[in-house]
Amino acid sequence: MSIEIKGVNKKFGDFVALDDVNVSLPTGQLTALLGPSGGGKSTLLRIIAGLDSADSGTISIEGTNATELPPQKRNVGFVFQHYAVFKHMTVAKNVAFGLEIRKRPKAEVAAKVDELLRLVHLSQFAHRLPSQLSGGQRQRMALARALAVEPTVLLLDEPFGALDAKVRKELRDWLRRLHDEVHVTTVFVTHDQEEAMEVADEIVVINEGRVEQVGTPDQLYDEPANDFVMGFLGEITTLNGVMLRPHDVHISLAPQLPGAAEGTISRLLRVGFEVRATVLTDDGDEVTVVLTRTHARQLGLDTGVRVWVTAASGALTMPALSAAAG
Ligand SMILES: Nc1ncnc2c1ncn2[C@@H]1O[C@H](COP(=O)(O)OP(=O)(O)OP(=O)(O)O)[C@@H](O)[C@H]1O
């Protein structure tokens, strides 16, 4: 295991930011810390980095107990949302910085900087200043700079958070490819479930200072440990006292399946190849149903049409005990 987090607790005054966190992250893996704002993700990342200390518990990195080590002795690289760059230095100089303060030979530094700039697709911008780069290019420079010193662990706190949706998506694909090339153990914080699902090998879901579940994107989506995870990792709707995913609702024009609830379509929305129908059942449930356009057309769905809805066979369901999150 590359990073072992054992029994970590952290309070700010009376406020419990982390509550007995235990997680093991394998070497070479890309892990997302995912959860709602204020859940404790950044606090955990800062504790792994050594920028903050836990009240109790231990952190070990590649078998070394790092709990008491200062950040510079942990061999971790960081990138934050608003990355501090040296504004007066070129892109190449920014990337070289960590190597130069370690007094590596000039030729070695030059070769390493070339290699890294190629990796992050910034070779042609080597001699520009950071202010002459786009936001996405600056974050790629930040990653190159963090990778320069060959960290054991790379820690990214919402690295693409400040960028617009399109650039975010490009960088996300790019981060995945970069990781497939360099395989450095990487932990990144995000509150965006789609980002975590697309990029991460494994996701740690953190809410109110606690780890709710650890698993691959598929495991979390298909076998959520509880209603919080189910609601946070995908859309849910409630029908006959159970939570389920809108694409798992079976809809028909006659009572085909036992226990189906009768209702009326109150709204129909076409989004690309999907149709989203809102069904108001006679019992007063408002149920969201997602189906393909073709299927909706075959059934002749429209507002005002009477329908029967129930969980499709094989649907993932969970008792709707508490208010759903997400
Ligand atoms: N230095 C601090 N002093 C007091 N409270 C803090 C401090 N740092 C964090 N907190 C509180 O701890 C909780 C967890 O914060 P943290 O930044 O870890 O959450 P997060 O999951 O990363 O959320 P976000 O996505 O909004 O950054 C928050 O309620 C925050 O207000």
UniProtKB/TrEMBL annotation:
Q: Which GO terms describe its molecular function?
A: ATP binding
Plastid among the record's keywords?
Answer: no
- Give the matching Pfam families: ABC_tran, TOBE_3
CDD domains tied to this protein? ABC_CysA_sulfate_importer
Report if keyword Protein transport is assigned.
no
Q: Supply the InterPro entries for this chain.
A: AAA+_ATPase (IPR003593), ABC_SmlMolc_Importer (IPR050093), ABC_transporter-like_ATP-bd (IPR003439), ABC_transporter-like_CS (IPR017871), Mo/tungstate-bd_C_term_dom (IPR008995), P-loop_NTPase (IPR027417), Sulph_transpt1 (IPR005666), TOBE-like (IPR024765)
Q: Which stretches make up the ABC transporter domain?
A: 3-233
Q: Which UniProt keywords apply?
A: ATP-binding, Cell membrane, Membrane, Nucleotide-binding, Sulfate transport, Translocase, Transport
Name used for this protein in its record? Sulfate/molybdate ABC transporter ATP-binding protein
Q: Which organism is it from?
A: Nocardioides hankookensis
